[in-house]
Write a structure and sequence with these properties.
This protein is about 45% helix and about 10% strand. Helix 3 packs parallel to helix 6. The protein has about 120 residues and is of the alpha+beta class.
Length: about 120
């Protein structure tokens, strides 16, 4: 039901500067159920560069208790990018508005992630 609801919102959204889900635009190109080849290549490039140790993608209903508590306690809005350093501390890296500025471009997004993170962190 979530995908159907998302599809409806995506198709009826008139505000191109405020996408229904900017993260979905980056990873899946919008309405596709599969990740785009550009997203897969961008992830492989970032992981291969050593800029991050791991990349994990979660839907809001897949969050573990720690991440859910972090998001709620800070009033963060979905979607977002979080990072975890070697000490397992979470921090917010990009907001929903930040993600929207990439207009679905995985390469530009990954360049910004690389600028934000060092090799000792995981992007969530």
């Amino acid at each position: 039901m979530g995908k159907l609801s998302y599809g409806y919102k995506k198709l009826t959204n008139k505000d191109k500067d405020k996408p229904t889900c900017a993260a979905c635009d980056i990873t899946h190109g919008g309405l596709s159920l599969d990740e785009t080849s550009q997203w897969k290549a961008a992830k492989a490039d970032l992981l291969g560069s050593g800029a991050v140790k791991d990349i994990k993608q979660f839907h809001r209903d897949e969050l573990d208790h720690e991440i859910k508590e972090f998001v709620q306690s800070r009033g963060l809005q979905f979607p977002m990018v979080l990072a975890r350093n070697e000490g397992s501390n979470l921090r917010s890296v990009m907001s929903s508005d930040d993600l929207a500025t990439f207009k679905g471009d995985p390469q530009t997004f990954m360049k910004k992630i690389r600028d934000h993170l060092g090799g000792s962190q995981s992007a969530l």
